[in-house]
Amino acid sequence: MSNERQLIKRAKRGDIKAFEALIIDYQIYCYNIALGMLRSQEDAEDVSQEALIKVFKKLATFNETANFSTWLYRIVVNSCLDYIKKREKLRLVEGDGEIDKNSSSGRDSVTDQVLQNELSDVVKRNLEKLTHEQRLPIILYDYLGLSYDDVAETLNIPLGTVKSRLKRGRDRLRQLVAKDPVFSYSMLDGEEVL
Amino acid sequence: MNCQTHQSNIFAYVKNELSQAERTHLEQHVANCKDCAEALQIEKAIENKLYNLPLAPLPDNYSDKLSSKLKQNNKVENKKSAAQFIKTHQRKLIAIAACLILAIALVPIMNNIFYDDFDMAKSEESYGGAPMENLAMDTNEGAMVKGDAMGDIAMDVADAGQADEQMLKGDALQQRKLIKRGAVNIDAENYDAVFDDITALVKGVDGYIENSNVSVNQRLVNSKRVDYRHCNMALRIPQSEFDSVYNQLLSMGKTKHYEQSSEDITNRYRDTVNEVKNLEVREQALRKIMDKADSISDVVNVERELSRVRGEINGLSGTLQHWDRLVDLSTIQVSLSEVIDDSQTVQPIDDTLWSRAKQAFIVNLNHLIEALENIFIGIIGILPMLIPLIIVITIVLLVIKNRRKK
Q1: Using the beta-carbon criterion (under 8 Å), do A31 and B59 form an inter-chain contact?
Q2: What whole-number distance in Å separates Cα of residue A44 and Cα of residue B134?
């Protein structure tokens, strides 16, 4: 931790190498948050990198007593939300045809869905059908393993809201998985029961 | 409890957030309800999957790309920083600039308002207290003219004896009556010496300085303020000495301009003398008539005529006397200018350099303090206007901001 503080101090003075060392462990989480929200690898790469550059620029304003990781994730989440807003505006301008193109692009194309019938793919695919509000707590809490407090801090919402959103999201996810045409109870056979 | 309620507890069950009683209750229900059992099974599987889903690996060269982007950004950032600063702080900068302009504009206004009376008092004092500073010093006849000239003017021309004397001069009018005048402009570096020389010269030939007018001006010579004097004087010199004085004046300094002229009034003088003689003859005749006069009306008429003749004689006698003075004492107008050698030479460093620099520093510091004081006074002074203005501007800005957000 003290090492992180030192790196933050050096990065604040504009030391790019210190900053790179600082974020080396967080990069993958940032990328996965972006991927979870934006679905496209290219977009996730661009947006997460832009977010990290923003982090570097804004580092001077970072309060060192705060949690760096949640501050970092918050910037990534906000960058993704901004990007989604922009993309939606663009879609409205360019017409409806664009929606189909966008929804079919990315790692989970229709053909992938047919070929990949593993339970994990069913879960992932249905996760993407949730709203951002429901999906984000699941990505951060269940997928990335953040604590409730960190999720609340990252999303800048109260702890109770995190819990209720998470529950709603998971309930909805369960219903979606149950209704998924590819899903069958036989898939659960090999699964480890808690 | 129906299935819906049980299913809504499934998530909490999987997360181990139910109380022991709730757990047992759910487990009992699931044992008898297929739908809820399936739902619980799916939930457990999802929980397991989510927890064990591997993180998507970073794309190739993710770190390298980020690194190059960071470096590029840093370069651009450095270039942009100044422009960015201006851009981000545009409003503040504009506000500061506006305040400065306002303050600068206010200073003279405030000066006018607050210091008008003070300045007037000060300037009056300076004029009254230091008359030697850049002024025209008039030393008119009263100061410089010698008593005899005034005496001549006040001479009583009505005196009969004086009139006879005039006649004698008229008789002696064999020589020409010439009024000589001269003008010399002298530039002198040693002003005082030349001035003294001229005074001595005039005294030496029994002349006098009719009037003299000295003015002191200032100008910059080698970035120093220097006083220089200029004197106009009228010299009255006996005619016999005119030429020698004129020549001596020319040799006193650099003469920029000199001229002399003479006016021959011989004929006019003679005519006037004759006219006076005729009038005197007439006067004597009138006196004889007066002696013979019988009636009062005759006396009155003769008396009137006599006084008219006497008046004319007096007037003409005065003119003759004036001419005599002009002829006897020639006038030379001397214009003496003090000149300063302002040829550009390498000046040695002045010993007082440091003290002068110090003085200049103090003067400017005082100006700065004065300006700051004035700005402060100005700002405090316009607060009654400024505060409502700021409130209005703030409201307008907030409204604009809100509209933009919408």
Answers
A1: yes
A2: 84
